[in-house]
Amino acid sequence: MPAKLSVNLNAIAMLRNRRNLPWPSVAGLGRIALAAGAHGLTVHPRPDERHTRHSDLPEIRALIDDEFPKAEFNIEGYPSEDFLALVEKHQPEQVTLVPDDPAQATSDHGWNFVAETAFLTPIVKRLKKGGFRVSLFSDPDPAGMKAARDTGADRIELYTGPYGSYHSDSAKAANELERLGKTADAALAAGLQVNAGHDLVVNNLPALAKRIPALAEVSIGHGLTADALEYGMAGTVKRFLKACGW
User: Fold this and answer.
1) Which of 40, 92, 163, 196 could form a disulfide with 158 if both were Cys (CB 3.0 to 4.6 A apart)?
2) Higher pLDDT residue, 96 or 105?
C-alpha cells in the first residue's frame, strides 16, 4: 500500500495569522484536502502559536470526527508538559515528538535516541497509555533505530529536509535518499514503522516511495501549500497522492 498523505496545515495558519482574520480558514482548507483524498491532517502548535493556534485544534478534531471519521489527526511538537496536556485534551490518532527549541522557525533535526532514551521513554509510555500512536522525529542514522525502538515508540518520522534541499543536485539527492533508505531498513528491522516529512514535493516523492516501499505516511505542509496557490488545494492533494503512488 502506498504511503498515506497527511496535510500539514501550519503554512495555512501562518498566512491567516499575518492579518489576524478568519481567512484562509485552517479547518476549511483541511476539509477540502480530506475531501480530495488526503488521509489525515497534521498540525504543530508551537508555544507562541505563530502557526497553528491552540484554538484550531478542537475545530480540526471535530471536522475529522464529524465528516471524515476514517482520517487521522496528527499533532507534532516538543514534549513539554503543556504540549502533552494539549495532546491529551484533543486526542489525535498520532503524536509526533520533535526535539525543537521553541524559537526554531521549523523542525530541522531529529532526536539523538541513544542520548535521550531516558528522557523519551516515560513520555512515550504516558502517550501510549493514553491510546496514542507515537512517532519520533529522526535523522537518517541507522545506528539509532534500536534505541528508538527501546523508547516504546511505534514509528519514526524521517527528517527529509536535506533530501529536499538537494532539488537541483541529483547526485547529492541520490546520496541522501540512500541514507534515508538505510535508516528505514534499520527501523523496519527493529520493528518500527516509518513516516517521513520535510521539504517533500511532487518531484521528489516518487523516488522516496520507491526506495522505501513500506513507507507508512508522509506529512507535507510547505511544498503542498505552495503548490495549492497554483493548482488549488483539491488539485494539489490529488497531485501529491499520485506522487505517493495512489
Assistant:
1) 196
2) 96
